[in-house]
Design brief:
By secondary structure, this protein is α/β, with parallel strands linked by helices. The protein has 17 helices and 32 strands.
Length: 810
């Protein structure tokens, strides 16, 4: 039996936060020092917002640097493509207060590949001195002709046969493929091209990085010092991915860098990899702490006039509305480093047909390398892009064959057992008919709007006449692929310690999962309470992220993997603590569970009060510690602790949305009125967090469809200046937010956590935990529904998001 002095490594040297008063909720624990613990977040609107309002929430920019700290600044190229002819840093180093300047090859840059690429960094005693040093650096460029339009690059590659700029290619076929002969009598063919501009991601806070080098005596006896490591405080959502990237940039082994993730606001714009690398290199060069700060204004965007993704889709239907064949070709602009766009291409190719069955499919996709900034993760993944294309084509096909869009959707709905374009068979529940039925049972909002002019398109200041307002409604379905077949490996680890103090049992959870203020750690607390039956749970990050390794995890799987790791660790700690009870019951400790305040056997025949059991086994502040790990592979042989889909099968999450949009045909303004959402959540762990995730997805979809880098809209020859009160790079205000009608979540999973038990009972095995992501499905379905409603209101077929068509033909 362990004593408190034998607490696991993640608690050594860390001071526990003071206990809350007895009358206070146990989840609201005052936040201790910066790096010790994330502010608790057991739900939206509780501890985290209170900490932010009180100024106690520790953002990355709040970390003090200590004595001798230097300030870094970055110089970025104004050219998208140029050769670096000459760089002279001596004038900058001659300035007083400037300690280091790195440029060109010292940063690994030999030529400029995109506008905004970092070409020089400086460290000085003051931020103004660092910026002055960069102004003194002499950089001579030889600008070249940039390749900014992915379509032109792709056409050039096809014309010349030189595919050096084509970095990835995918092709999926079903049946006879998408070869389309002349349509037979009664058949209709619809053909459209779609464009997607780069999504805006406004920052809620500037990025900030603090790099602190650590030295130790070199052992030579002459007072010399040697570098032993680097401490890096930074805002990041994936510590291990960012740690590996910094190690590769600075040439240090992973064990030499201690990365401390700082809580941040949830936006990626404050998460700048250039800042991390610059701060690390300058700290190593100067041997002093270095702070680097910057915001999205410091990073120049790519060519906003060229789409990031182009899709050309052809659908054929018969007179009854049956989908006969689908042919899709798409080109993705991967920027200067297209490796990050390949997962987007994979997901888009697999899902671009949408949740509809079709026996003859051919999908082809390419990623090309241009002189735009490197392609980062698309907000919400490719599910939104696939849903917009699929739903637009269904609407167009319905109009071509003279049927209603709803009839066409119902007739071609995909079901469990059908195949995706890559040949995988859908398994598990795909309850689209149930979601559609629930959605159609809801009431439409009243029309016309008013009398409050804020309910009109354009809101205050751009309000038109009521006779010019036209209403549109659109229904859209979305499907999110949860475990792609090309997924090599993703894993997460956790450590759980069950002990007690003067207030009773308490659980300490260590995880590398970062809580961005959206309640991620609340789910881990929920899981620990569910397994151990202990109310007081504290979630901490380890002092060194390498102590609890985890891979970079794709969107929609982060919570799932980390919750499974915590569950396995908690089960291990529970088995240790209940070993004596298991001996009394003559069963294995693994067959004991904690349910409704009782320790019970798996069949429920024997039980004891959990308070009584813990009072005995935790006497003397005993500590029971266990580690947990959970891994996911897209393919391969299953093994204990590893989830691998059965060969040739696919697991998906689905959602159905209806959007209502008002359009002012005179002032050319749009206003989303109401969004009705129906989700299959599998198993809802925290209802308030699931609801907040849906709301976040709707907000992001409204911003992307009606705002993101919108310049003008050209529908039937008309130029529209914008939508409502939205401007480029702004989040929608409350005036532009549609009313969200969230229907009760459909929970299709059985609720069991062990899929093997389900197979024995004859049920289809769901994903472990039965948890399905709702945020990505919300973003995808809402964006597609808003686009469908806009088409209905304008009686046109816009093919660009943000809604500007190109090359429409049929």
């Amino acid at each position: 039996m362990n004593k408190p002095s034998a607490l696991p490594g993640f608690l050594i040297g860390e001071q526990l936060p003071p206990e809350a008063p007895a009358a206070a909720p146990v989840d609201v624990v005052p936040a201790p020092a910066y790096a010790a613990v994330d502010p608790p977040a057991d739900g939206i609107g509780k501890a985290v917002p209170a900490a932010k309002a009180a100024g106690r929430y520790p953002y990355a920019a709040d970390r003090p640097g200590g004595p001798g700290m230097l300030y870094a600044a970055l110089a970025r190229s104004p050219h998208p493509h140029a050769a670096l002819l000459h760089i002279d840093v001596k004038p900058a180093l001659d300035l007083p207060g400037v300690h280091a300047v790195l440029a060109g090859q010292e940063l690994g840059v030999t030529a400029v590949e995109y506008r905004g690429q970092c070409v020089a960094v400086a460290a000085a005693d003051h931020p103004a001195l660092a910026r002055a040093a960069l102004d003194a650096v002499e950089i001579h460029y030889a600008p070249g002709e940039p390749l900014l339009d992915a379509r032109q690059v792709f056409a050039m590659a096809r014309r010349t046969g030189n595919d050096s700029r084509v970095s990835a290619y995918r092709r999926y076929t079903l049946g006879e493929g998408g070869e389309l002969a002349e349509p037979a009598e009664g058949e209709s063919t619809v053909m459209y091209g779609y464009e997607f501009g780069r999504g805006a991601d406004p920052a809620a806070a500037p990025g900030a990085v603090l790099a602190v080098p650590h030295f130790a005596p070199d052992g030579q006896g002459n007072g010399g010092m040697r570098l032993v490591g680097l401490e890096l405080h930074t805002a990041c959502a994936d510590p291990m991915r960012d740690l590996r990237a910094v190690c590769a940039a600075v040439g240090l082994p992973i064990e030499a860098i201690h990365l401390v993730p700082a809580p941040f606001t949830g936006t990626r714009s404050g998460d700048d990899p250039d800042l991390r690398v610059a701060a690390a290199l300058l700290a190593l060069r100067t041997g002093r702490p270095v702070r680097a700060e910057g915001g999205p204004a410091d990073r120049l965007a790519g060519d906003a006039g060229t789409p990031a993704i182009r899709v050309h889709a052809t659908h054929r239907v018969d007179a009854e509305g049956t989908l006969l064949a689908v042919r899709v070709e798409l080109v993705v602009d991967g920027g200067a480093d297209p490796a990050g766009a390949e997962p987007l291409l994979d997901e888009l190719c697999r899902g671009v047909v949408g949740p509809y069955r079709c026996e003859n499919v051919e999908i082809q996709g390419w990623v090309v390398r241009t002189h735009n900034p490197p392609a980062g993760p698309w907000p919400g993944g490719a599910a939104m892009l696939a849903a917009v294309v699929a739903e637009a084509q269904i609407d167009a096909a319905a109009a071509a064959c003279g049927r209603s869009p709803l009839d066409l959707r119902v007739k071609n709905l995909i079901r469990s057992g059908d195949h995706l374009p890559d040949g995988r068979r859908l398994v598990g529940a795909v309850p689209l008919p149930e979601l559609l039925t629930t959605l159609l049972d809801t009431q439409m909002p009243p029309f016309p709007p008013g009398p409050d002019i804020r309910t009109f398109p354009g809101t205050v200041g751009r309000t038109g006449e009521l006779t010019r307002v036209r209403r549109g409604a659109g229904i859209a379905l979305a499907m999110v692929d949860l475990v792609p077949p090309e997924l090599d490996e993703e894993f997460a680890t956790a450590q759980v310690a069950l002990t007690s103090d003067v207030n009773g049992p308490i659980v300490h959870v260590a995880t590398s999962m970062v809580d961005t203020g959206s309640g991620q750690h609340a789910l881990l607390r929920k899981m620990a309470r569910e397994v151990l039956g202990v109310r007081r749970v504290i979630v901490r990050r380890p002092a060194n992220p390498a102590d609890l390794p985890a891979t970079a995890i794709g969107p929609g799987r982060t919570t799932w993997l980390h919750c499974m790791a915590v569950q396995r660790a908690a089960r291990g700690a529970r088995s240790q603590a209940l070993a004596k009870v298991a001996a009394q019951f003559a069963v294995s400790p693994q067959l004991l569970e904690v349910r409704d305040g009782m320790v019970v056997t798996y069949d429920g025949t024997l039980s004891k009060p959990v308070d009584e059991v813990y009072a005995r086994v935790l006497r003397g502040a005993a500590v029971y510690v266990a580690n947990g790990e959970f891994r996911v592979h897209g393919s391969g042989a299953p093994s204990p602790g590893v989830f691998v889909p059965e060969p040739g099968t696919a697991h998906v999450a689905v959602a159905a949305y209806r959007a209502v949009v008002d359009a002012d045909t005179e002032l050319h303004t749009l206003r989303p009125v109401r969004v009705t959402a129906a989700h299959d959540a599998g198993r809802v762990l925290l209802p308030e967090r699931a609801e907040a995730a849906v709301g976040s997805g709707v907000l992001t979809a409204v911003d992307f469809v009606f705002n993101a880098q919108a310049e003008e809209i050209d529908l039937a020859g008309a130029e529209l200046g914008g939508f409502g009160a939205l401007g480029p790079g702004q989040f929608p205000t409350m005036l532009e937010q549609p009313e969200l009608e969230l229907l009760p979540f459909l929970e299709s999973s059985i609720g069991e956590l062990d899929s093997t038990m389900l197979r024995r009972r004859g049920f289809a095995a769901p994903l472990p935990l039965g948890y399905l992501p709702v945020r990505r499905a919300s973003y995808a379905a809402c964006a597609a529904a808003l686009a469908c409603a806009t088409r209905d209101a304008l009686e046109a077929h816009p093919t660009r998001l943000p809604l500007r068509p190109w090359g429409v033909s049929s």
